[in-house]
User: Which sequence fits this backbone?
């Protein structure tokens, strides 16, 4: 049996490098000229504020523009780009598409821009699971999947298979983070039913402890492409420092689909050894479990924030990070009143605390009759409302330093400021991507 082919190409020029990556793996072989082609980038979060660093978080516009140009030159006319940006909650797709310059792709190539959140969805059965998928995804003849080369704080890596979780509605995403099912065994099923003809992993940037901007981004200048989504992911994971056995959703996918877990069973066109690195994926918690490791450095006492688990949905992750930040920046040396914070869907208080913050509807539900809780501070909404959190904590005598917490966001952004390799123009409309092809996208 022939091996699946994965190309690995150094990113120099967006158009030429991508063309090389696609040609090396014969990436357009499964596409017909009349196909409705849906391109699925990873635009999981996009903050309109200038202080949002997109590096290693979202697919670069440079790669998207080059891809559309290549497809148009090859005679593919029926093109769409679709995504459902999750964070911040309530973000409109059209605003994100505009910020990334995609309107120019609509003007120059007639590319349809689809915000999945505004589309009709249909239920699709995955044995015991039912996911709701936008009709426009189901109606696509072929999908070109364009994830980012990144690590993920719950799934180890987020590549082609994980990017498809963006194709299900909010309710289905919550189902993926279920109490009874393992996250890695849910979203990995989606790839089995969607017509992904080509996966292009955008490795212009990568991020440690992703998938959001809280992680540390690096310039990587790499493109990985394959008509085989699993093979592309295996190579992407290897480059990030992980074999299939280190990545539960890849191992699960391999088991279900009779795939080899040995990278030697993939034909790699290009050099991966010089690009291999090891990026950490997990957020480090203090050994005694009181909270993220930096709680120890700050000398925080009287507070225990339990480490997130896989049941914490993406919407909750954002609020949880904000809550941690608010708690940390409010600490001025006075110990908290022996307070614990529970999150996700299944943590149970074991007692021993004066106060228990129940962060979100699910955890309120899970602990509603828990006799171990002395005093509950319930944030009942889904996802948890930060204003309510601030209000209830204030009633407990904890005043948050909003200014300091905003500075933390700025601090994360400032890590990239003034560094030439962190180039914001790669996340905007690209010159020269018009159909006349008079110059290359740069
Ligand atoms: S409260 Fe949080 S964990 Fe529960 S369903 Fe809502 S977003 Fe998910």
Assistant:
């Amino acid at each position: 049996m022939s091996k699946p082919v994965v190309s690995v190409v150094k990113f120099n020029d967006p158009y030429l490098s991508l063309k090389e990556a696609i040609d090396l793996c014969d990436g357009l072989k499964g596409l017909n000229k009349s196909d409705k082609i849906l391109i699925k980038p990873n635009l999981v979060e996009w903050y309109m504020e200038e202080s949002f660093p997109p590096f290693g978080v979202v697919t670069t516009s440079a790669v998207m523009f080059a891809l559309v140009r290549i497809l148009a030159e090859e005679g593919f006319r029926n093109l769409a780009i679709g995504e459902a940006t999750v964070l911040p909650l309530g973000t409109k797709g059209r605003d994100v598409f505009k910020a990334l310059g995609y309107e120019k792709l609509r003007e120059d190539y007639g590319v349809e821009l689809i915000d999945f959140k505004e589309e009709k969805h249909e239920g699709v059965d995955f044995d015991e699971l039912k996911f709701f998928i936008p009709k426009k995804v189901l109606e696509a003849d072929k999908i070109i999947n364009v994830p980012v080369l990144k690590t993920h704080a719950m799934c180890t890596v987020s590549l082609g298979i994980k990017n498809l979780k963006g194709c299900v509605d909010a309710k289905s995403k919550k189902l993926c983070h279920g109490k009874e099912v393992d996250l890695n065994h849910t979203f990995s099923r989606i790839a089995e039913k969607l017509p992904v003809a080509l996966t292009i992993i955008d490795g212009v940037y990568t991020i440690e402890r992703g998938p959001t901007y809280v992680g540390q981004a690096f310039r990587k200048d790499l493109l990985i492409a394959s008509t085989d989504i699993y093979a592309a992911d295996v190579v992407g994971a290897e480059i990030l420092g992980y074999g299939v056995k280190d990545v539960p959703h890849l191992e699960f996918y391999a088991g279900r689909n009779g795939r080899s877990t040995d990278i030697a069973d993939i034909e790699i066109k290009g050099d991966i050894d010089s690009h291999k690195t090891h990026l950490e994926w997990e957020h480090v918690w203090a050994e005694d479990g009181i909270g993220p490791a930096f709680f120890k450095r700050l000398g925080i006492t009287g507070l225990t924030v339990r480490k997130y688990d896989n049941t914490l949905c993406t919407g909750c992750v954002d609020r949880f990070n904000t809550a941690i930040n608010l708690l940390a920046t409010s600490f001025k040396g006075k110990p908290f009143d022996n307070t614990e914070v529970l999150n996700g869907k299944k943590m149970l208080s074991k007692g021993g605390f004066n106060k228990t913050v129940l962060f979100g509807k699910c955890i309120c539900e899970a602990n509603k009759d828990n006799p171990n809780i002395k005093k509950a501070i319930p944030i009942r909404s889904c996802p948890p409302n930060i204003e309510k959190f601030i209000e209830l904590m204030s009633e407990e005598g904890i005043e948050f330093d909003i200014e300091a917490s905003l500075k933390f966001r700025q601090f994360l952004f400032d890590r990239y400021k003034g560094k030439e390799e962190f180039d914001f123009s790669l996340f905007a409309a690209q010159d020269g991507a018009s159909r006349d092809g008079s110059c290359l996208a740069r």
Notes: The chain has a mean pLDDT of 94. Residues 174, 312-313, 315-316, 344-345, 360-362, 382-383 surround iron/sulfur cluster (CB under 6 Å).
